[in-house]
Write a structure and sequence with these properties.
This protein is an alpha+beta fold. The protein has one domain: 3-Layer(aba) Sandwich (Aminopeptidase), CATH 3.40.630. Strand 2 and strand 3 form a beta hairpin. The longest helix is centred in the middle third of the chain and has 15 residues. It starts with a strand and ends in a 6-residue tail after the last strand. It catalyses: N-terminal L-alanyl-[ribosomal protein bS18] + acetyl-CoA = N-terminal N(alpha)-acetyl-L-alanyl-[ribosomal protein bS18] + CoA + H(+). Its main location: cytoplasm.
């Protein structure tokens, strides 16, 4: 299986919204408009494509602050349930981290406390738990860990 990562395009957004509904039942999944807003604001979003299935994953990061003082905030990573466990989430995360590393930026994210596979993925990429946000996800009321990875200052 060959995974092709490409910048997320407007034509990918309906599929992203469809995946959101499948991946985050009981929550408030992102709409096409929410993804459009992220792209319009210049945030870095990438899609994972697999032939013949097309778009099977997406991820995005916002860079906040000013030159020399950026912080990265991962907004979302999602992989089609039928393609999970095949390294697609890892490839998407690495793309986001490479983007942040170019700015030597620390990276922050929130993850459900019961999402053990995602937590392990983040930990293997240098993230540590720095906080707990009670009832962060709505409407379910699920808790989230806040995790951080320091900025990379050299290769």
């Amino acid at each position: 299986m060959t995974v092709r990562l490409e910048p997320l395009r407007d034509e990918d957004l309906p599929r992203c919204a469809e995946l959101e509904k499948a991946l985050f039942p009981g929550e408030d999944p992102w709409s096409v408009r929410a993804f459009q807003f992220e792209l319009e604001n210049g945030n870095h979003y990438v899609g994972a494509h697999v032939e013949p299935d097309g778009l099977v994953g997406y991820a995005g990061i916002a860079m906040l602050g000013s030159p020399g003082h950026y912080e990265g905030e991962i907004h979302t990573i999602g992989v089609d349930p039928g393609h999970q466990g095949k390294g697609i989430g890892k490839a998407l995360l690495r793309d986001l981290l490479d983007h942040a590393d170019k700015a030597h930026a620390p990276v922050f994210l929130e993850v459900r406390t019961d999402n053990v596979p995602a937590i392990r993925l983040y930990e293997t990429h240098g993230f540590e738990q720095i906080g707990l946000r009670r009832r962060y996800y709505q409407p379910s009321g699920a808790d989230a860990y806040t995790m951080a990875r320091p900025g990379r200052t050299s290769e």
